[in-house]
Amino acid sequence: MRLGWVKGDKLIGVLNWIGTPAVFLYFFSMIVYPWFETGGQWSGVQETWMDWQTLNVGVLAFISSMVAFNISKYHANQQREREFIAARAFLPEALSELAEYFEQSAELLKEAWDRAKDKQDQCKTSLERPVPSLPENYREIFSKCISLAEPEVAQFLSYILMRLQVHHARINSLSKSFQPVSNTLVIKDNIKSYFYRLGELQALIGRIFNYSRGLEGFDDSPLSWDEFKGAYGNLDLWIDEIDDLSDFTRRAIGRGDNHGWKA
């Protein structure tokens, strides 16, 4: 649906880009030039119109089509904006559910981290923390907003969904790695990268919370260190207790890994 709207919008843009100069050229050729050519005699202008009557009919039809297309585009955009505002009203609820899920994920990762750094722990007994279940409502709400939002907002929300799916798959795999029958090694550096990605997700939903409530405009700038630091705090993660997480995050920011939805 949204793809068709974008193509139609671009088509009208191309039509305006080509048609507007053509209309001005037509106006000059049919009115301004004949007026000066005939010495300001109105009869001469009318004679020119009669000679090019077929062209005039076609151009007038083209102008009418341009006007109709632009009116249609305006009304379609107005309707889309109203629908997006209605869909966006449910976004804070979805973001709150995701924030709760992220807190539960952080608890699992902290337990996995504490056990992985314990050299006497073979990491072959199940974690006490279960893998949290993903919320139920966010998919429909995000999908509706993505289909109606401006491209940059849709891209931002799509990136959250992509990172969320990757995160959930990773913590599932990590939890299974602690099973007695698993042959997968539990590596601290992997868990540290999971902390970073979880912090990114928390920072992303923190970034868009006020926008979802209509309190401020959309911010498309890269995530800052302060946003990551605040996200870790909201997840009750003490970065000084997780080896090198602070420097790991700063290095990722330095590589430009804090603007992934623009990659």
Q: What features would you describe in this structure?
A:
With 263 residues, the chain is mainly alpha-helical. It folds into two domains: 84 residues; 173 residues, no CATH class. The chain has nine helices and no strands. Keywords: Membrane, Transmembrane, Transmembrane helix.
Could you say which structural class the secondary elements and strand pairing correspond to?
mainly alpha
Please give the radius of gyration in angstroms: 29 Å
Helix share, percent: over 70%
Task: Give the N-terminus to C-terminus distance in angstroms.
Answer: 24 Å
Number of strands: 0
Count helical runs: 9
Task: List the quaternary state of the chains.
Answer: single chain
Tertiary shape = elongated
Low-pLDDT segments: 1-6
Strand content: under 5%
Q: Mean pLDDT, as a whole number?
A: 86
Number of domains: 2
Helix and strand string, N-terminal first? HHHHHHHHH
> How many strands, what sense, and barrel or not for the largest sheet?
none
